[in-house]
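Contributing new records

If you add data, match the layout below exactly. Sequence lines come first and carry their own label; structure lines follow with theirs. Keep one chain per record. Anything else will be rejected by the validation script.
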Amino acid sequence: MLMTPMRTFPSLFVGRRSLVEAMEIDAVEAGAQGTAFTCGACDAVILTAESREAVADVVVKCRCGEYNQL
């Protein structure tokens, strides 16, 4: 599984992105296929997906409070 860090930004997002709240994810249990995306602030795995294109229009709010996007 490829680990990809997301970048954080300070506040609300602009555009057509959807907000997703992160849940606790075990990257090993999620499987070896696809990509695991990590929070840019705390390095926790916050999202898994088959490809980067699947999360191109998504903003993920981590449990630490930071907003992340690709």
